[in-house]
Every structure is written in structure tokens, then in C-alpha cells.
């Protein structure tokens, strides 16, 4: 096993060095907010990329996995369980799971793939280019992406006057929604109404609030509990279908499941890139040399079937710019 820096009494040491138990194979810990097999768009590209880099579980790599089954309250104890095993590196995804992992250890390297920009930047010590903590990874969401997605909605339906912006109030990256989006949109911005939901448990109350606010369309910000949860997504889409209301999101599966459109980074691409960071750490790289990466390419998915159901004629220029068109 490769040499590790030792912690010495009285030495002003690098804060993230540690003493590891000697093992025949390195140990990768995985903290998932989902159920086993519940996020194939992350796990499949991650494992494919990691295997291509030469890491094969059971042969030259040991794995320890913990799943929260969609219950955020389980993330902290599960993270502590994994840390007790003294893994060489921990991989996780979503802002909530990344925060739990960072609370559990300040020594074990943590690769996040992906999470929200606001949270990930804070966990990395405030620096994207050179993390000063034990956390790095790949950002999935940002307020700017959400602004661009709402702008696409206005391009598709320019006569909107009131748009609901559904956010998770527990997500610190959404504290400035929708004020920041209104500022980015400028004069073209309709009235943006904040609609709060923390997950499936209160999604119906949030939708009732949207109806009471007489919003004409709904934007759903990318969050693991209100956008990535398939059950919550189905509730939102059923509500919108009954109300004949366009829905857009920065979570790409929304458009594939029936929303009018979605814009955001490709989660499988980010997960595969996270595997590259895990590989580099296992080969001795320091977190400080692995910058937090922001999405460089945004994917636009347009659902023409949803547009026809709403009797909307989408601008040809919007369809031409789409990376994926669902007929």
C-alpha cells in the first residue's frame, strides 16, 4: 500500500493527513441518499468509468456502501459508519449527502459527484480552483442555470405573467430564489412566485399553494428531494397536466417524464468524471490539486409531445437548439 503522511505530535501538519490501517486493497466508501439501484444515471457511469481506469471491486478495490433510502435523517449516522471503516476515499452525491459526509470527517478525501454549486463551494472551503478542505467534486446546479431554464420557458411561452418557482427551503443554494432569477431575466421577467416543498411529504401542499397563487407555469429547481425523486416528480407532472400548465426544470429527467423542457448538465457525465477524481486520489493525488468543476456544457431537452398536449407551438429556433427532442 502506498506511503501515507504520519500525524506527529507537536507537528503543525497538513490537516487532512491520517494514519490508515494496513489493508491488502484500498477501500472506497460510498454514501448514497437513494435506495440500492435507485440512481442508475449516477452509479452506472461511475462504475463504468472506474472500471475502465483499472479498479475492479473484489480484485484490487474493496467497497463499503450505505444507502439512506431517501431519508435525509439517516445520512449523518451512515456517514459516521463509513468513516469508522477508515476508507481511502469516499464518494457521494447530492448536497445533503455531501454535507453529511463532510460533517463526519475532515481527513478522509471526499469526492462529490454531483451536488449544488453553493453547497459544494462552501464544503471545499470557499475556493473552487483549489479546495482547502477534504472535499472536492462536480457542481450540478447553480442559480444561473435556473435563470437560463426559466428564460427558455419564456421563449416557449412569451405571454406568461406569473411563474411558480418551486424550491426546497432546506437547500441553502436556493435561498435567493426567485429574486436572483428575476434580476437575471431583467425586464422580460414575469412575476416569479416562490413555491416551497421539502420533498414528497409536502409536495401536494406546495402544489395547492401554486394553484392558490394562480401561477400559469411552474419551474422546478434541481434538488434531490423535489426534482430527482421520481414520486415527487410524478405528483408535479400530474398536477400540471390536470391544470394544463407547462412545467420546466433544471433536472433533465423532468422533460423525459413529461415536462415541456429541461436544461441542465448531464449527470452521467459528471458521475463519470467523479470516478476520475476517485482514481487520482487512490493514486496519491491531493484534494487541493483537484478543483471543484462547474458544468461546462448544458443539455437542453424539449418535449414536443408535452407541447402538443398544451396546444403550444414551439419556436423553430428553440427546437433547433435542443440537444434532445422528444416527439
Brief sketch in words of this structure:
With 327 residues, the protein is α/β, with parallel strands linked by helices.
Explain the overall architecture.
The chain is α/β, with parallel strands linked by helices. It has 12 helices and 12 strands. Strands 7-6-8-9-10-11-12 form a 7-stranded mixed beta sheet, with helices on both faces. Strands 2-1-3-4-5 form a 5-stranded parallel beta sheet, sandwiched between helices. Helix 1 crosses helix 10, helix 2 crosses helix 3 (95-104) and helix 5 packs across helix 6. The protein is elongated and about 65 Å long. The protein starts with 26 loop residues before the first strand and ends with a strand. Residues 1-21 have low confidence and may be disordered.
Provide tags for this entry.
elongated; 7-stranded mixed β-sheet; 5-stranded parallel β-sheet; single chain; disordered N terminus; alpha/beta; 327 residues; 12 helices
